[in-house]
Input
Amino acid sequence: MRKIYRRTLVLVGIVICLLFAASFEAMAGEAELPFYKLRLSSEYPPENHQTVALYDAAAKISELTDGHVTITVYPNLQLGDYTVVYGQVMTGDIDITASPISPTYDQRIEILNLPYLASDFNEFRKNFFPGSFIWDLTSDINEKNGTTLLGIFNAGFMGIGSTSFPSEAFAELTDGNIQKDVLLRTPASRVFVEIVSAMGYRTTTIPYAELYSALQAGVADGWIGGSALVNWDGFRDVIKCFLDANAVNECIPISINTKLLKSMPEDYQKVITSTFLEMANRVADERQQQEEQAVANMKEFNIKVIEPTDEELAALRDRIREVVWNKMRDSLGDPLIDTLCDAYGVPKL
Output
């Protein structure tokens, strides 16, 4: 009986020791997991839905990594202009940025300014996510700069806001063979000049900060460079018409320093990449709803919204792609434009 008792005590002792050892090993393993405190630069204000998505991404990543990866979001370009910030992500001085990539880092990024890379939100989900030409190109640009693409936020499709239009027919207002006595402000970018010229409008360049007063004073009759939401939020008191042409999709790449990302445990890498992709999907859904609401608001405000039929939009998209993309060969190069045209099935001129 005593032998059995002693053996039982020995077995219990062994089990307890094993449990303590396993517990200690687990604690030691957990203690060895590194902590990462990252800084993320955003160009939008805190209340913007894109910035909110970044806050939510940071919270989810922290939760899924048990607090081992914490991301502080700095909105309103608090860490510097986007051209400088992206360079600092390349060097690792800043960890992540949600902002455009300046062509000074790779001229090919200018392709993101081309019209009708997507003509609606369904095309955006197809043409700006993993497996698409745009995703692969933007990823390659990031990779060559020592950064990794995490997602692309949709910031709306640009139309034309104006104080007057000579017609209310979408097809006429976008027909390049019909010259309009309308002067449109474009950003200081050749591609925008080519777009509105291909629709038959005269162009002028005015700084965005001076645009409202220029429209108010009649220095320009209208402008391109903002979506329905931007026109509603910033220009509803001065424009009388909005041409819902979906000409250019403004998009915001999210980039992280590659060396930093690859230094993390594989599980953390997966959490970060999947979370930002999830937020890119969410931002697209939210932006679609916001743009639709902005159109409804303008109509209620007695701003004339000129919308295309599906057939009219497809016809404009196909024509502008062929005309404008091929005109950009001298700045973007034949190989890139040829590859783009092949990817989209656009004739080469």
Remarks:
- The chain is about 50% helix and 15% strand.
